[in-house]
Specification:
Layout lengths: L29 E4 L2 E4 H17 L6 H26 L8 H14 L6 H33 L13 H8 L5 H16 L13
Antiparallel strand pairs: 1-2
Helix pairs in contact: 2-3, 2-4, 3-4, 3-6, 4-5, 4-6
Length: about 200
């Protein structure tokens, strides 16, 4: 005698619920945000909280502290590139990218994690100046080596003896790749302090 075969009922598909309050969602009360769905009430509340956080990140920015952090980051980046050049006797422009990274992070850290358009402008300015001085130091090293080889007693100094010598030194062998590295430095300095942007309001 065959044992009776029990039929397993197919699992019923549960109704979709709000990811915040677990309320059953209806088509008119459903708001999709990313990979989650919320009821309109919860979405509106969460959206308001996020907007407050986004606004707070750019409010009361301590620009003096941020400037100190950016300058310290710039100095660290300059010394890293110049130090690499002195040790290896190679001018590797890729190392210069660290300048933008260190300047941007220095500004954000010393500003207490704040982010704003003003911090972006500050970071870009410091990164540009740091890049120019780093270029001068790197080129100064090779120019002084060449002068010594030629038996010339003149040496470039730091700080430079004149603005003219500074400009001539930084423009020596300044080519297309140097513009590429400079662009990356500026991009890093712009990107890191950039304020977080909220996605468009899904309930609008």
């Amino acid at each position: 005698m065959n044992a009776p075969v029990s039929e397993t009922p197919a699992p019923s598909t549960g109704a979709e619920t709000c990811a915040q309050c677990s309320r059953v969602l209806t088509p008119g009360d459903r708001v999709a945000a990313g990979d989650r769905a919320f009821c309109r009430s919860c979405y509106t509340t969460l959206r308001a909280e996020l907007e407050q956080v986004a606004a707070a990140q750019s409010a009361d920015v301590p620009y003096v502290n941020a400037a100190v952090g950016a300058v310290l980051g710039g100095v660290a980046g300059v010394l890293a590139w110049w130090g690499f050049t002195v040790v290896t006797k190679i001018s590797l422009g890729l190392v210069a990218i660290a300048i933008g990274f260190l300047v941007g992070h220095g500004a954000v850290r010393f500003a207490g994690g704040k982010r704003s358009g003003g911090l972006q402008a500050l970071s870009i300015g410091v990164a540009l100046v740091s890049f120019l001085f780093a270029t001068y130091l790197v080129n100064m090293t090779f120019i002084n080596q060449a002068l010594a080889t030629q038996g010339d007693d003149f040496r470039l100094a730091f700080p430079p003896q004149s603005i003219e010598l500074f400009v001539r030194a930084i423009t020596t062998n300044f080519g297309a790749m140097d513009f590429v590295f400079l662009a990356i430095v500026v991009y890093e300095a712009w990107k890191i302090p950039k304020p977080f942007a909220l996605p468009p309001d899904a309930a609008a």
